[in-house]
Automatic annotation (TrEMBL):
Record InterPro entries: D-isomer_2-hydroxyacid_DH (IPR050223), D-isomer_2_OHA_DH_cat_dom (IPR006139), D-isomer_DH_NAD-bd (IPR006140), NAD(P)-bd_dom_sf (IPR036291)
Classification of source organism: Bacteria, Pseudomonadati, Pseudomonadota, Alphaproteobacteria, Acetobacterales
Domain (D-isomer specific 2-hydroxyacid dehydrogenase NAD-binding) ranges: 108-279
Protein's name according to its UniProt entry: 2-hydroxyacid dehydrogenase
Keyword NADP: yes
Record key words, sorted: NAD, NADP, Oxidoreductase
Length: 311
């Protein structure tokens, strides 16, 4: 039996099988059974596997006295207190790069779905309304001014895809990058110059509610917001109000502040396309994420350098 490991998130069956072949895997039980589980099982847990959207609490780290590594099956680590993990001597890994293309694809798909109103078109056909109409005309997605908040790995991949759409690309972030796109240090200034604003920045204290009312108003009633980062990067109340009041043209959202809760108002708006945090949810990418997560665990227990360490 290999090292004792606590699994907090769901994994592909194939990833789970590989994990179970080398580790003594314990599933995190339902809420009512957790206290008892911790009392009886916390001792000896050397590793935790968790999702980017779940992370791990400081309390959980403190209650696993033998914990050596938290392996995130995802790229985001905003749900982990890095200082706390470091102080507890716990290593942290994630799965960058392997999901970049899929998240960028979804960002562009959301833009197309919002601007060409594909959910409504699909419903129109399914409801047997075709050829009766009239179906509302939609808006052209190509040749626009595209703004990208955060030109990291995913932001860059979005820009690469948008290059095929013509138009202009600009970005914002803490630093200017060695690229030809226009740079705006201020997000509201970027929004004022954008028809579509893509949010692809990592969640952190610095980016919390970065997309606020001023940014949304700068984007304006014809503007479209796409978020494939984290819900916390947007002031969600301000977003809902802007959409409901027609101060923002539309939104494509894969992430929300309090997932899986989605603000009720959004469910009734036609100018919004909603997805249940599926940026990386292709078979190929989930398999690759699982393999990279396993590589990190195996390296840790073999005393080798971690392939993709965070701390
Ligand atoms: C990630 O990898 O961070 C995804 O958003 C899933 O949590």
């Amino acid at each position: 039996m290999g090292p004792k490991l606590l699994q907090l998130c769901t994994l592909l069956p194939s990833t789970h099988d590989k994990l179970a072949a080398h580790y003594e895997v314990h599933q995190w039980p339902a809420e009512a059974a957790r206290e008892e589980w911790l009392r009886d099982n916390a001792s000896g847990v050397r590793a935790v596997v968790t999702g980017g959207h779940l992370g791990i609490t400081n309390e959980m780290i403190d209650r696993l006295p033998d914990l050596g590594i938290v392996a995130i099956n995802g790229v985001g680590y905003d749900r982990v207190d890095l200082d706390h993990a470091k102080a507890a001597g716990v290593r942290l890994t994630n799965t960058p790069d392997v999901l970049t293309d899929d998240v960028a694809d979804l960002a562009v798909a959301l833009m197309l779905n919002v601007m060409r109103r594909l959910p409504a078109a699909d419903r129109h056909v399914r409801d047997g309304l075709w050829p009766h109409g009239p179906q509302a005309l939609t808006r052209r997605a190509s040749g626009r001014r595209y703004g990208i908040v955060g030109l990291g790995r995913i932001g860059h991949a979005i820009a690469e895809r948008l290059a095929g759409f013509g138009g202009r690309i600009a970005y914002s972030g803490p630093n200017r990058k060695p690229v030809d796109h226009d740079y705006h240090a201020d997000v509201a200034a970027l929004a004022a110059k954008s028809d579509v604003l893509f949010v692809a920045t990592a969640a952190s204290a610095a980016t919390r509610a970065l997309i606020d009312r001023a940014v949304l108003d700068a984007l304006g009633p014809e503007g479209v917001l796409i978020n494939v980062a984290r819900g916390s990067v947007i002031d969600e109340d301000a977003l809902v109000a802007a959409l409901a009041e027609g101060r923002l043209g539309g939104a494509g959202l894969d992430v929300f502040v309090d997932e899986p809760h989605v603000p009720e108002t959004l469910l009734g708006l036609e100018n919004v396309v909603l997805a249940p945090h599926v940026g990386s949810a292709t078979r190929e990418t989930r398999e690759a994420m699982g393999n990279l997560m396993l590589d990190n665990l195996d390296a840790f227990f073999a005393g080798r350098p971690l392939p993709t360490p965070v701390v």
